[in-house]
């Protein structure tokens, strides 16, 4: 069993979060997104964005959490980011505010593939849910790529389900379909699986 834990991200984690994001996207999305788009992602740019998200979140309920694997030394192996649902959480032509003020949107939930199946995703999700409950959120939503079977399976096995919303992202003139999943935020603490 993996020894690991979840903690709030710190500014000095930004570079490692960007590296994990890039490595995970290049492995998990290589059949979903155009290769040249993945190859041209700028790790330094991503690190600056993560630094800003950690140092200056838009509000107190915007969170970035990191998963840490403990071995001879500790490694950052994954991260989750979430905040109140905004325009980015809406489906095309869905009216502003239709999700409600008690809805949180997951923008990222990634574990680097080489650290997968060790409980890090479950710990990230459980820690996020605990914070969402404390913050008064009653429901969570997340967009996933239609072709991202691993993320869909992970979320649906923890109770998430499609809410009927769909969209297609225009990625360098290629439309990439996504569907939105949702789940009620449990009123009691959740134990991570694994």
TrEMBL record:
Domain N-acetyltransferase: 4-182
Gene3D superfamilies attached to this UniProt entry: 3.40.630.30
Acyltransferase among keywords: yes
GO MF: acyltransferase activity, transferring groups other than amino-acyl groups
A matching Pfam family: Acetyltransf_1
Keyword Isomerase: no
Keywords associated with the record: Acyltransferase, Transferase
PANTHER family, per database record: AMINOALKYLPHOSPHONATE N-ACETYLTRANSFERASE-RELATED-RELATED
Protein name: L-amino acid N-acyltransferase YncA
Classification of source organism: Bacteria, Bacillati, Actinomycetota, Actinomycetes, Micromonosporales
